[in-house]
Amino acid sequence: xxxxxxxxxxxxxxxxxxxxxxxxxxxxxxxxxxxxxxxxxxxxxxxxxxxxxxxxxxxxxxxxxxxxxxxxxxxxxxxxxxxxxxxxxxxxxxxxxxxxxxxxxxxxxxxxxxxxxxxxxxxxx
Length: 125
Known about the structure:
0% strand; 5 helices
């Protein structure tokens, strides 16, 4: 893959990831953490949805792919690392319990990962 094509795909993935993970975060917090939804401004919640993706997606796309790991192990390592890092970011921004922040990170990442697989399979993005 050409480097510019790779970077273009990265920018599309970043935009979609931010959109999907922020949407999942807002829905999750509204349903399961109603008190947090009332305690934080919409700006704070949007920041908590967008910042983790900006902090971790470049790492997932530009650092780990260069390691010589086979597909399932590479994806597992990437996702585990991302969930851990994003959970810590969510914990620090939203001041929620640590376990809840990592659970929220898992749900957000599962949503974006599965959506990405579906988009790739059916649209070849």
